[in-house]
């Protein structure tokens, strides 16, 4: 892992200039990970898995009701991880050398401790990313930024009728529209600050 990290650090500036080479290097990296993890399953005493990223589903609650999604409806209703559990998990991630933390839901911004969680994660030096439907972004973005969040993915499924057909809650829909927010669906647009 240390060798790969050093190699990546050395090559990164060069690869930035050659996007095709960068893409190819990324594919090789992913393939080597797949092989390594497959081998680790067969020979756990000799080869250890080397996870670099985890997804944490902070909550099953959601403030949207997208078609085809059961979060916020009948999937684990009301379930969410406490701050203490997430904090300990993040501490373990740091100790294990995991670099990227992706905060998910449901909708992670409805978790009452999301800012504290981001603060703890960023404070540990973990690369922290959050995926959201964007509804609460305006009111939370300043606190999240202060807490150290620099990357956000916002689900986007289009506008107008495209959006109406995805989100079945009229009241929420009109709020999202009036605030000019992107709306959830097929793709995710990543923003870094
Ligand atoms: S915003 Fe995401 S979690 Fe919420 S209902 Fe839509 S797809 Fe499901």
How would you describe this structure to a colleague?
By secondary structure, this protein is an alpha/beta fold. The protein has two domains: 3-46; 53-192, TIM Barrel. Helix content is 47%, strand content 15%. The protein is built from seven helices and five strands, in the order ααβαβαβαβααβ. It has a five-stranded mixed β-sheet, covered by helices on one side. Helix 5 (137-147) links the parallel strand 3 (127-132) and strand 4 (151-156). Helix 1 (2-17) packs antiparallel against helix 2 (19-42). The longest helix has 24 residues, at 19-42. It is globular and about 45 Å long. The relative contact order is 0.11. Mean pLDDT is 83; it is low at 182-186. Iron/sulfur cluster (SF4) binds at residues 62, 64-66, 69, 71-72, 105-107, 133, 184.
Short description:
By secondary structure, the chain is α/β, with parallel strands linked by helices. The protein folds into two domains: about 45 residues; about 140 residues, Aldolase class I (TIM Barrel, Alpha-Beta Barrel), CATH 3.20.20. Helices cover about 45% and strands about 15% of the residues.
Secondary-structure element order, N to C = HHEHEHEHEHHE
First-last Cα distance: 28 Å
What class would the helix/strand composition place it in? Answer: alpha/beta
Task: Please list the strands of the largest sheet in the order they lie side by side.
Answer: 1-2-3-4-5
Mean of all residue-level pLDDT scores: 83
CATH topology of the largest domain: TIM Barrel
The major β-sheet equals: 5 strands, mixed
